[in-house]
Amino acid sequence: MPQSLAKILLHLVFSTKHREPWIAESVQPRLHAYLAGACRALGSEAYRVGGTDNHVHIGCSLPRTIAVSALLEEIKKSSSHWMKQQDGIPEVFSWQAGYAAFSLGHSQLPALLRYIDNQPEHHRTRTFDEELVEILNLYGVEYDQRYLWD
Q1: C-alpha span between 100 and 15 (Å, rounded)
Q2: What pTM, to 2 d.p., does this model score?
Q3: With contact defined as beta carbons under 8 Å apart, do 56 and 32 qualify?
């Protein structure tokens, strides 16, 4: 095959440092739009971005020319800088050091988009910590509870 083709879909999740509630509801739509733009600037199709006051979910594609870690590093770095320029956001704003990234099939994308759209409702009954552990278990990811949180 003379060209390289790929369609790798990802569900990315990361939180604010120590899960601080630094993402005010008023800034969330702008942050989500910024994160989608940051993905697109790296060649990633951002299908949906959502979250709450302390974390975000991104449904996107992985460009064939970049590693998952590099994609996350760039979108977290640029969005952290952007957040610090917003009114009412503390200068100490930062994202957690780590992230969670999960692959999914094309047929699973509509369910992921609904899940991301329903984040505010979902978190009326569940914390981010509970949600992340549930997702890790769903995907069969082994983890050490001592190192899960920063």
Answers
A1: 10
A2: 0.94
A3: yes
Q: CA-to-CA distance for 84 and 79, rounded, in angstroms?
A: 9
Tens digit of pLDDT at every position of the chain (150 positions): 688 888 999 999 999 999 999 999 999 999 999 999 999 999 999 999 999 999 999 999 999 999 999 999 999 999 999 999 998 899 999 999 999 999 999 999 999 999 999 999 989 999 999 999 999 999 999 999 888 887
CATH architecture of 8-147: 2-Layer Sandwich (3.30)
**19 to each of 10, 44, 62, 149, how far by Cα in Å?**
22, 26, 26, 9
- Other beta carbons less than 10 A from residue 28's beta carbon: 18
Please, are residues 54 and 16 in contact by the beta-carbon 8 Å criterion?
Answer: yes
